[in-house]
Write a structure and sequence with these properties.
The chain is of the alpha+beta class. About 30% of the residues lie in helices and about 25% in strands. The protein has 4 helices and 4 strands.
């Protein structure tokens, strides 16, 4: 069971093939057509829609701790509330390249836009796994 970013990094190092991690940083936003109840819930920190704002791919060695990833994300100037993470396995002892990660990362962004998030690990801004539902 992965409950934090450090658990994820440990799990990635234990895989048979090297991994590339895909990250989609999202901001919680209130849709324009939100009802008064949805607005009240959003103000309490509940609900809303998750909008992808930044995406990136890294090997576990390029992002060994969540603090470094946070700093890099802050440098973009985009605020975010949740980051979704997925992993790609390499072949023959070589991790997937950034080029190989582009299409899966694009598909991941689109999947999140459509609300299909069950295949991804959601982490809060502290690197802890969160339950969305």
């Amino acid at each position: 069971m992965i409950s934090s970013y450090s658990d994820l990094i440990q799990a990635s190092h234990s895989q048979q093939e090297p991994q590339r991690l895909l990250f989609v940083f999202c901001r919680a936003e209130l849709p324009d057509e939100a009802s008064p109840e949805e607005r009240a819930a959003f103000e309490r920190g509940e609900g809303g829609a998750l909008t992808p704002v930044v995406c990136v791919d890294k090997t576990p060695d390029e992002a060994p701790d969540f603090g470094a990833l946070q700093e890099e994300s802050r440098a973009t100037g985009q605020s975010w509330d949740v980051v979704f993470v997925a992993a790609m396995s390499g072949r023959g002892g070589t991790p997937p390249s950034t080029d190989e990660a582009q299409q899966p990362l694009t598909m991941m962004v689109e999947s999140i836009r459509l609300g299909h998030i069950s295949n991804y690990l959601p982490l809060d801004s502290y690197g802890n796994a969160v339950s969305l539902g």
